[in-house]
Amino acid sequence: MSPAKPALWLRLLMGSRPFAMASWRGYLLAGLALVDVLLIYLIWLGVYLVWSEPKPVSTSHVAIAGFAAFVSYFLWRGIGPIWRLPTQRVTLAGPTFLALSELRGQLRTMPNTGRREAGRVFSVVRHWGVCPICSAEVDIQDGGSEFPGRLVGRCADAPLEHVYSFDPVLLTGRTLR
Fold it and tell me: Which residue numbers in the chain have pLDDT < 70?
């Protein structure tokens, strides 16, 4: 595990160092996710109000619904990694959360071992390893349809053949294929 460089907006708002989720930075991060959910709600409330008028459906009605679906999809995809953090502890950070110089990275919340109180620390990191079969680099990726809901390690040289499980607590894995 090594630190990854966050996107500029994330560095400006929260800095580039790990921080406690029970701090103002953690509340700001959770607030950003809630603002996105609120925006999605308001967009669809607007669509409902436009469609609730008793008049025939026109092309503009369909265009408004299509635009609302498009914007909602990208807002939801944008907050998805933050939304899944409480249950998964490690999620893939898409290009929204990573600097342009970073190709891969993960968002991570792990217990704060340095404090007496229970709490979690948020960080932007990159988990990687060395493939024991071919000595290439192994990066964490989505499990896809074969391993749904899981993050797996895939070898850079043989990503379909050299696949490993990923334990975010122990930072270990075993061969899946």
Answer: 114-118
**Interatomic CA distance for residues 105 and 174, integer angstroms:** 21
pLDDT digits (tens, 9 = 90+) for 94-146: 888 888 888 888 898 887 776 656 678 888 889 889 998 898 999 999 888 88
Q: Roughly how many angstroms between the first and final C-alpha of the chain, as a whole number?
A: 23
pTM above 0.85, yes or no: no
CA 81, CA 66: separation in Å to the nearest integer?
24
Q: What DSSP line would sit under the chain, residue for residue?
A: -EE-PBPHHHHHHH-SS-EETTSHHHHHHHHHHHHHHHHHHHHHHHHHHHHTSSS---HHHHHHHHHHHHHHHHHHHHHHHHHHHHHHSEEE--TTTB-TT-S--EEEEEE-TTSSS--EEEEEEE-EEE-TTT--EEEEEE-TTTSTT-EEEEESS-TTT-EE--BTTTTB--B--
Residue 177 to residue 103: CA distance in whole angstroms: 24
